[in-house]
Amino acid sequence: MNTAKVYLIPSLLGESEHSRVLPLYNLDIIRSLNTFVVENEKSARKFIKQVCPEKVQADLEIYILDKDTKPAELFDIIKILDKGISVGVISEAGLPAVADPGAQLVKVAQEKRIQVVPLVGPSSILLALMASGMNGQNFAFHGYLPIDKTDRKKRLSHLEAESAKTGIAQIFMETPYRNNQMVDDLTKILRSETKICVACHITLEDEDIRTLSIKDWKKEKYDYHKRPAIFVMQA
């Protein structure tokens, strides 16, 4: 029987105090591990140093699992698990395996009957939905929307129509330096009564979460440039 475990370790959403968002149990798990599968080595080492400064960085065995990881590289990680060595999976921000390449490893671990242990921590997607005032019973996450203006307009119009018909809260995101353009596009494309929540810098000191109708967003002052945000739509 394989005794290895895959621990899904949430990381911080930005420069915040970890005691606000991470249980002490998570720190115990990090202390117990020396092998980590991460999306970005620099940010993962910074996170581990912040929450467990006593860990010796030179002792850490780091494997990269990102959007460019090849099947052979994933196989190298699986071989570690096959030896009975537990690993911690760390995303660049927030929850691993949710809108994150770590899902590839979790899929294989489940197929091989290796125990997967999800740990509690901040999820920008769920925190945005919680604070939005929108439908928490029926929602969908769509990741990044198309960049092409024509394709984006079609996609937004489709999501709005689906929300109006079914009541689904539609959740999506944008590259931070295009956030202001996203809000601008929303005000031009969507109907005046459709509501949009912009949840920016969630869990940070300057957290900003606003839910307004499109007609009110047109009058609102905002600046989300280069500030990570989640968008929630309800028609």
UniProtKB/TrEMBL annotation:
User: Could you state a single Gene Ontology molecular function term?
Assistant: methyltransferase activity
Its transmembrane ranges are none
Keywords from the UniProt entry = Cytoplasm, Methyltransferase, rRNA processing, S-adenosyl-L-methionine, Transferase
GO BP annotations of the record are: methylation; rRNA processing
* Cross-referenced SUPFAM superfamilies: Tetrapyrrole methylase (SSF53790)
Pfam families per record: TP_methylase
| Record has Methyltransferase as a keyword | yes
Outline the extent of the Tetrapyrrole methylase domain: 29-215
Q: What InterPro entries does UniProt report for this protein, alphabetically?
A: 4pyrrol_Mease, 4pyrrol_Methylase_sf, 4pyrrole_Mease_sub1, 4pyrrole_Mease_sub2, rRNA_ssu_MeTfrase_I
Lineage top rank: taxon: Bacteria
> What protein name applies here?
16S rRNA (Cytidine1402-2'-O)-methyltransferase
Which organism was this protein described from? Algoriella xinjiangensis
Q: What is the lineage of its organism?
A: Bacteria, Pseudomonadati, Bacteroidota, Flavobacteriia, Flavobacteriales
